[in-house]
């Protein structure tokens, strides 16, 4: 992808939508809470040993019966509100806008101990079309945000959200992440991510959606730059200053020796 084409195009959104809605056999169900929430992982390649493949793809679908698609979209876009609902967030910063529907940002999050915490720098873009809401991101290199020594720089290959109304106050909500977390993560970490952590974050998101209208009424109710680009006060940045962050250019941190002992207690 050349510099001038780094911004997501229609093909990327179409591909992301296809992956979100796919039901083919490459998806292995890891969690099912009746009809309200399911979590799948993509079948790992046949590989012996305790470590997972470099690229890990997870998909979570939640049927939300009491919050509209528009409100859930606002929740995801409202950076100020995220500090209120996201228990995994260490640090989050919007760096610059790239176009009316794209920006670049920094995000760091907590990982289950004793795994090191992670961070990413991502180019994020969004689209509202035919009553479908989509937000996608992927990792980029930013000259002022190099990897930090106290965190592992992870890679988002393609991550995002797809939201579609199923009624005036209900929606289908899908989170999909194809990522390279870097490091040599053992199986129990991936199992915990798909079976425990992902459902927990989805439940936090649902609760955040229910509380958002009241919170927003007290916190700049008319400020929604994701809907009204003219409200965006971030500095402009030339997308050509960014480049795709490749996983192989980052140092790999071996964490497997620290956590093998947890396999038996956490992988069930």
Describe this structure in words.
This protein has one domain: START domain (Alpha-D-Glucose-1,6-Bisphosphate, Chain A, domain 4), CATH 3.30.530.20. It is 25% helix and 34% strand. It is built from six helices and eleven strands. Strands 1, 2, 3, 4, 5, 6, 7, 8, 9, 10 and 11 form an eleven-stranded mixed sheet that branches. Strand 5 and strand 6 form a beta hairpin.
Task: Describe the secondary structure blueprint for this structure.
Layout: H1 10-21, E1 27-33, E2 37-42, E3 56-64, H2 69-77, H3 79-85, E4 89-99, E5 102-109, E6 118-129, E7 132-141, E8 152-153, E9 155-167, E10 170-180, H4 187-218, E11 243-244, H5 256-259, H6 263-266
Parallel strand pairs: 6-8
Antiparallel strand pairs: 1-2, 2-3, 3-10, 4-5, 5-6, 6-7, 7-9, 7-11, 9-10
Helix pairs in contact: 2-4
Search tags:
single chain, 268 residues, Alpha-D-Glucose-1,6-Bisphosphate, Chain A, domain 4, eleven-stranded mixed β-sheet, globular, disordered C terminus, cilium, lipid transport
Task: Provide the domain count.
Answer: 1
- Give the C-level CATH assignment: Alpha Beta
Helical percentage? 25-40%
Could you give a short account of the major beta sheet? 11 strands, mixed
User: What is the straight-line distance between the termini?
Assistant: 41 Å
Structural class, please? alpha+beta
Q: Approximately how much beta-strand content do the residues carry?
A: 25-35%
The number of helical segments is 6
Global morphology:
globular
What's the CATH H-level homologous superfamily? Answer: START domain
Overall residue-averaged pLDDT value: 86
Architecture (CATH level 2) name: 2-Layer Sandwich
String of helices and strands: HEEEHHEEEEEEEHEHH
Radius of gyration: 18 Å
- In the CATH hierarchy, the third-tier topology is known as Alpha-D-Glucose-1,6-Bisphosphate, Chain A, domain 4
Low-confidence stretches: 259-268
């Amino acid at each position: 992808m050349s510099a001038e084409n780094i911004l997501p195009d229609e093909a990327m959104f179409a591909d992301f939508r296809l992956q979100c809605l796919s039901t083919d056999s490459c998806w292995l169900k890891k969690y099912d809470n009746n009809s309200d929430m399911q979590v799948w992982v993509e079948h790992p390649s046949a590989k012996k040993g305790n470590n997972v493949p470099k690229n890990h793809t997870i998909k979570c679908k939640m049927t939300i019966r009491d919050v509209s698609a528009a409100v859930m979209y606002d929740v995801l876009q409202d950076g100020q509100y995220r500090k209120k609902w996201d228990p995994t967030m260490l640090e989050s910063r919007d760096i610059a806008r790239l176009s009316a529907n794209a920006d670049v940002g920094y995000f760091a999050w907590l990982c289950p101990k004793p795994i090191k915490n992670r961070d990413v720098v991502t180019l994020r873009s969004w689209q509202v079309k035919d009553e479908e809401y989509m937000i996608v991101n992927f990792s980029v290199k930013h000259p002022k945000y190099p990897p930090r020594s106290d965190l592992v720089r992870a890679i988002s290959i393609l991550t995002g959200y797809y939201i579609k109304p199923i009624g005036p106050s209900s929606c289908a909500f899908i989170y999909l992440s194809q990522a390279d977390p870097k490091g040599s993560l053992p199986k129990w970490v991936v199992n915990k991510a798909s079976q425990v952590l992902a459902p927990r974050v989805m439940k936090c998101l649902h609760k955040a959606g229910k509380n958002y209208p009241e919170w927003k009424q007290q916190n700049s109710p008319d400020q929604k730059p994701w809907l009204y680009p003219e409200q965006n006060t971030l500095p402009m940045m030339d997308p050509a200053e960014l480049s795709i962050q490749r996983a192989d250019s980052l140092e790999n941190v071996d964490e497997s020796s620290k956590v093998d002992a947890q396999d038996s207690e956490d992988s069930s």
